[in-house]
């Protein structure tokens, strides 16, 4: 049995990790870490866990947790994991960080976009970017995994095969993304209040969102060129879900069947990626509560552009589900253990 500790178990991403790990047959949660609910029963913080989780919340002492756990998940604000990380921790437990602390290889880029100093840059090189479908073999051997961002997971996986095969002109790529409000976390913030979000849709972080360099870096590896793109996120009045619509010029003439064959080449055996039937557009509703990524494309021959569409649940494939998928790889377990979640509807 894998002993798992969660720092930040009282946040939205941490809460989803608790839900998933409770259904994992090879993992047991031994630490419900929090900052403001220490000594409170976890089932009182989240009533859905009433009479399911009787344990009390503990603190965020990663060093102590490393002595007891096989794996530590940090579902904490940017900078926390980096500020705690020590060789001694990694020598004792594997770490899966849900924040962005180890996602970006160039520390100067991280510090510029996140506006904070990186407290343990010596571990950045070792960290493996935990996009399972792309970096599976490296993840299996990793001690430290940087779980990808929610927008970035959806944006990268939706375009990855076409970037890799040189079918799209990367200099023309534009990503329009929409997220449900749980993506912003549980902390109280005025822009996320009911009256600000309900019956509304708004762009934010225009030309400045911190997921931009992460997407650029990863799609740059795929395309084997430096990538600069436009990424515009929007907040929409729903709880969960991310929908991305990506636009790029085609470098050569292709048919839908050609493009489908490329996606099949990369994702044909992927359990969690569903390339939809021709003409069917991904919808957040059809992936909600699951680890699936739904993808489809449409070629617009009039403009010589291809429109790529992807949908995920931000809290599952965009956070906790992918983290569990990473844990499964790191511990040699079947990749889908604990993740055979059927999307819920309505
Ligand atoms: N929400 C999402 O869809 C996604 C989130 N993520 C990432 O996961 C991480 C958590 O996000 P999310 O769950 O949304 O955030 P929340 O604000 O909902 O939760 C944050 C968690 O971290 C704890 N915490 C806050 N400040 C500190 C601190 N200074 N030291 C230790 N613990 C602290 C909180 O404890 P307490 O409750 O006690 O205050 C809480 O458990 C972030 O890095 C985020 O970027 C990644 C992908 C998707
Ligand atoms: C809707 C919303 O506010 N989303 C968050 C992104 C989600 C997140 O938590 O960021 P990481 O995936 O990098 O950890 C934001 O735009 O800041």
TrEMBL record:
<feature type="active site">
    <location>
        <position position="150"/>
    </location>
</feature>
<comment type="similarity">
    <text>Belongs to the NAGSA dehydrogenase family. Type 1 subfamily.</text>
</comment>
<dbReference type="Pfam" id="PF22698">
    <property type="entry name" value="Semialdhyde_dhC_1"/>
</dbReference>
<feature type="domain" description="Semialdehyde dehydrogenase NAD-binding">
    <location>
        <begin position="3"/>
        <end position="142"/>
    </location>
</feature>
<keyword id="KW-0521">NADP</keyword>
<dbReference type="GO" id="GO:0003942">
    <property type="term" value="F:N-acetyl-gamma-glutamyl-phosphate reductase activity"/>
</dbReference>
<dbReference type="InterPro" id="IPR058924">
    <property type="entry name" value="AGPR_dimerisation_dom"/>
</dbReference>
<dbReference type="GO" id="GO:0005737">
    <property type="term" value="C:cytoplasm"/>
</dbReference>
<keyword id="KW-0028">Amino-acid biosynthesis</keyword>
<dbReference type="GO" id="GO:0006526">
    <property type="term" value="P:L-arginine biosynthetic process"/>
</dbReference>
<keyword id="KW-0560">Oxidoreductase</keyword>
<dbReference type="GO" id="GO:0070401">
    <property type="term" value="F:NADP+ binding"/>
</dbReference>
<dbReference type="InterPro" id="IPR050085">
    <property type="entry name" value="AGPR"/>
</dbReference>
<dbReference type="Pfam" id="PF01118">
    <property type="entry name" value="Semialdhyde_dh"/>
</dbReference>
<protein>
    <recommendedName>
        <fullName>N-acetyl-gamma-glutamyl-phosphate reductase</fullName>
        <ecNumber>1.2.1.38</ecNumber>
    </recommendedName>
</protein>
<dbReference type="GO" id="GO:0051287">
    <property type="term" value="F:NAD binding"/>
</dbReference>
<keyword id="KW-0963">Cytoplasm</keyword>
<comment type="function">
    <text>Catalyzes the NADPH-dependent reduction of N-acetyl-5-glutamyl phosphate to yield N-acetyl-L-glutamate 5-semialdehyde.</text>
</comment>
<comment type="pathway">
    <text>Amino-acid biosynthesis; L-arginine biosynthesis; N(2)-acetyl-L-ornithine from L-glutamate: step 3/4.</text>
</comment>
<dbReference type="InterPro" id="IPR000706">
    <property type="entry name" value="AGPR_type-1"/>
</dbReference>
<dbReference type="InterPro" id="IPR023013">
    <property type="entry name" value="AGPR_AS"/>
</dbReference>
<dbReference type="InterPro" id="IPR000534">
    <property type="entry name" value="Semialdehyde_DH_NAD-bd"/>
</dbReference>
<dbReference type="InterPro" id="IPR036291">
    <property type="entry name" value="NAD(P)-bd_dom_sf"/>
</dbReference>
<keyword id="KW-0055">Arginine biosynthesis</keyword>
């Amino acid at each position: 049995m894998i002993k798992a500790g969660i720092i930040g178990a009282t946040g939205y991403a941490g809460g989803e990790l608790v839900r998933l790990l409770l259904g994992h047959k090879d993992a047991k949660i031994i630490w419900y870490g929090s900052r403001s609910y220490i000594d409170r029963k976890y089932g009182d913080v989240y009533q859905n866990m009433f009479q399911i989780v009787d344990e009390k919340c503990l603190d965020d002492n990663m060093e102590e947790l490393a002595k007891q756990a096989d794996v530590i998940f940090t579902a904490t604000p940017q900078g926390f994991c980096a500020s705690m990380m020590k060789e001694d921790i990694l020598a004792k437990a594997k770490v899966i960080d849900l924040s962005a602390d180890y996602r970006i290889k160039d520390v100067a880029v991280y510090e510029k976009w996140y506006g904070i100093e990186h407290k343990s840059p010596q571990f950045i090189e070792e960290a493996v970017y935990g996009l399972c479908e792309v970096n599976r073999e490296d993840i299996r051997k990793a001690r430290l995994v940087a779980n990808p961002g929610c927008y970035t997971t959806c944006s990268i996986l939706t375009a990855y095969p076409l970037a890799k095969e040189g079918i799209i002109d990367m200099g023309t790529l534009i990503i329009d993304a929409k997220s449900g409000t749980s993506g912003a976390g549980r902390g109280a913030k005025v822009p996320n209040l009911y009256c600000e979000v309900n019956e509304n849709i708004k762009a934010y972080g225009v030309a400045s969102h911190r997921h931009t360099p992460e997407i650029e870096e990863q799609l740059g590896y795929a395309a084997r060129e430096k990538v600069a793109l436009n990424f515009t996120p929007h907040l929409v009045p729903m709880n969960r879900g991310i929908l991305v619509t990506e636009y790029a010029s085609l470098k050569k003439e292709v048919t839908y069947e050609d493009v489908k064959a490329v996606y099949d080449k990369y994702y044909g055996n992927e359990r969690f990626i569903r390339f939809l039937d021709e003409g069917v557009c991904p919808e957040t509703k059809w992936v909600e509560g699951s680890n699936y990524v739904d993808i489809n494309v449409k070629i617009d021959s009039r403009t010589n552009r291809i429109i790529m569409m992807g949908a995920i649940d931000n809290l599952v494939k965009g956070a906790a589900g992918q983290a569990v998928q990473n844990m499964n790889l790191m511990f040699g377990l079947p990749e889908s253990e604990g993740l055979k979640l059927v999307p819920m509807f309505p």
